[in-house]
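Practice problem 4.
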């Protein structure tokens, strides 16, 4: 377990015993995770890690999901139709994603325009 610069333990108002979310940030790391979010239910309750290089990793407490898994998944924005807006806050080196649910396409904003891959 890492040494944390801070730790926050939060409870939902209607939580039952054991329902806690813990956020911690490690210091002095050159590998592993810097920020971890735990669900507080079990020792395998880590639900999210932000690695020192910036990788964001959702976790179910094991190294891979079963084909029957119901989570964790990464969710992206979407709507019904082709995106036409120009992202105004795109950070250098990052690309916005969008799901067009009505046409079954995954869009990425790249080279000053929206481009898609068809979903089958």
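Answer key:
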């Amino acid at each position: 377990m890492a040494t944390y610069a801070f730790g926050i333990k939060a409870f939902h108002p209607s939580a039952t015993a054991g329902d806690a979310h813990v956020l911690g940030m490690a210091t002095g790391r050159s590998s592993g995770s810097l920020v971890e979010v735990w669900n507080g239910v079990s020792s395998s309750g880590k639900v999210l890690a932000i690695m020192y290089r910036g990788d964001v990793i959702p976790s179910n407490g094991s190294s891979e999901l079963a084909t029957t898994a119901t989570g964790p998944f990464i969710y992206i924005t979407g709507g019904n139709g082709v995106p036409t807006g120009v992202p105004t806050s795109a950070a250098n080196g990052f690309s916005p994603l969008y799901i067009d649910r009505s046409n079954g396409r995954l869009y990425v904003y790249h080279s000053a325009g929206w481009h898609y891959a068809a979903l089958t």
